[in-house]
Specification:
Strand order of the largest sheet: 1-5-6-13-12-11-7-10
Number of helices: 18
Number of domains: 3
Mean pLDDT: 88
Strand content: 15-25%
Number of strands: 18
CATH architecture of the largest domain: 2-Layer Sandwich
Distance between the termini: 68 Å
Helix content: 25-40%
Largest sheet: 8 strands, mixed
CATH class of the largest domain: Alpha Beta
Shape: elongated
CATH topology of the largest domain: BirA Bifunctional Protein, domain 2
Length: 493
């Protein structure tokens, strides 16, 4: 006989690094939230789109394969080469929901209406170093309009974001959508005579406005400054005259939209592109007002500059303004949960023609965390009614009870473990968070009755009542078999 082969080690039962498992309540709460958001998108005339989780690396565009494998942010692999057809294609899991939209808009451009309004929800994957709160798989919730250059499309998307937040459960007053325009910043750069070689450096310093203030940004734009540790930070090298329009832009937020727009016009000076951007903001503000979206919900705010390099026109960000406690017990605002804007050139890589587009993306996990922080999600889930088994030969009777409850719209299941130990059946029901257990032994069956046990009330009595009250079994009632559904409905109600 051949020698016994060495036993293979057992695989580790652990989630891969950077990934996580979602159990019942997490999945249910996310689905309920996304369903409410989808209803908002549907009312605005947007259609759902589900694209493949896999795209060609070429179609994704942003990431390209390395010598051996694509490793710049995507999970990718190479298809097996076809004989006589050269090397196989590189495929990758989608890293967002916008790149697949670009491919769909180009591939089906003769079949889709123009403009094309779509929303998409689903997981995306990024091959990045995981960390606290940073996962390699997460959910996105997007809505986009492809094919319209009108600022009415931007106003619609921006207004729809406010409606989506409220539809998800965020109350008015607990959020603000801040609106800006890439063209205004371009105009400021033009007025400041900032060249292309300095633009990125200027953007980086502008992004520090919230941390270091006007004086700090002025130093960073010109000669530099010392940070809190005393280290010297090199400045961009602009003159005071060049820095002036940038600082005027950063401090242009007025008491209302009209004042902000007036200040922005001064900041862009004679720049035509800057003036165009301010005009677009004014038009969007007027349309939002006509939709009933006042400045308490959506406001023009020049401080929204992060990520502007990706956009070509209006840009916006949704911020939740209520306070939560951080891990150290300190109060802080919840912060940003969504953003978007206009990004023309979405389909151009495929067709060679510019195709205007505007859209939004909601951070699903962050928004769900916000709802939990407000007590609007995360409440204890309710499991199914459990039909216990006293006699395995009567399994058909127990299945009939569960079917009757299901047909009445009540979630129910039959215990499928070993029925010998009845206590284990009730322990199972507790672990399932079951509100009710159904009990019918041979005696009850002969008399045509069932025992209906209110497990929630029973747990409360066990915790609070006296021994005599507990022995009285007020949480368990006997009813005719024909009244099973009515009694369970009464308890659940």
């Amino acid at each position: 006989m051949a020698k016994d082969q060495k036993k293979q080690p057992r695989p580790k039962a652990e989630t891969p690094k950077g990934f996580r498992d979602y159990f019942g309540a997490d999945v249910t709460e996310r689905k309920e939230m996304l369903d409410r958001i989808a209803e908002v998108y549907h009312r605005h005339g947007f259609d759902p789109l589900e694209t493949s989780a896999v795209e060609t690396v070429e179609a994704l565009g942003k990431f390209l394969p390395d010598v051996d494998r694509p490793n710049a942010g995507v999970f990718a692999w190479q298809e097996e080469a076809v004989p006589g057809g050269g090397s196989g294609d590189w495929l990758a899991l989608r890293y967002d929901l916008t790149a697949p939209l670009a491919r769909v808009a180009a591939q089906f451009r003769n079949d889709l209406p123009s403009p094309y309004r779509r929303y998409a929800m689903g997981p995306v994957w990024r091959n990045e170093k995981p960390g606290p709160g940073r996962f390699r798989q997460f959910y996105q919730c997007d809505a986009d309009t492809v094919g319209s250059a009108s600022v009415a499309a931007d106003a619609e998307i921006c207004g729809m974001l406010a409606d989506a937040l409220e539809g998800a459960g965020i109350e008015r007053g607990d959020y603000i959508v801040r609106l800006n325009n890439r063209k205004v910043l371009n105009g400021v750069m033009e007025a400041a005579e900032v060249g292309a070689d300095q633009a990125e450096d200027v953007l980086r310093q502008i992004d520090k406005f919230d941390k270091v203030g006007e004086a700090g940004v002025r130093q960073l734009l010109t000669t530099g400054r010392k940070d809190e540790s005393g280290a010297e930070i090199e400045g961009v090298g602009l003159s005071d005259a060049q820095a002036a329009p940038v600082l005027a832009f950063l401090t242009s937020k007025g008491a209302d939209n009209a004042a902000t727009l007036e200040n922005l016009r001064k900041a862009v000076g004679a720049s035509a592109i800057g003036a165009e951007g301010v005009d677009e903001l004014a038009q969007i503000a007027d349309m939002l007002a006509a939709m009933g979206k006042g400045e308490d919900r959506i406001v023009i705010d020049p401080s929204i500059v992060r990520g502007l390099g990706y956009y070509t026109g209006p840009v916006f960000e949704a911020e939740l303004t209520f306070e939560i406690l951080d891990e150290k017990g300190r109060k802080r605002q919840f912060g940003s949960v969504a953003g978007g804007g206009r990004y023309d050139g979405l389909v151009e890589r495929f067709t060679g023609q510019k195709v205007p587009a505007t859209g939004l993306s909601i951070g699903v996990d962050r928004l769900l965390a916000a709802l939990r922080a407000k007590g609007l999600a995360g409440s204890e889930a309710v499991g199914p009614v459990v039909v216990t088994v006293m006699d395995r030969d009567r399994m058909g009777d127990y299945q009939a009870m569960a079917a009757e409850l299901r047909n009445a719209g009540i979630r129910a299941e039959v215990y499928l473990g070993n029925p010998k130990n009845f206590g284990n059946q009730l322990k199972y029901a507790d672990k399932r968070l079951s509100p009710v257990a159904i009990i019918q032994g041979g005696d009850e069956a002969a008399r045509g009755v069932v025992q209906v046990k209110d497990l929630i009330l029973g747990a409360k009595i066990a915790a609070e009542a006296s021994h005599e009250e507990w022995k009285a079994q007020p949480a368990q009632t006997e009813v005719p078999r024909a009244d099973l559904v009515a009694e369970v409905r009464r308890i659940l109600g």
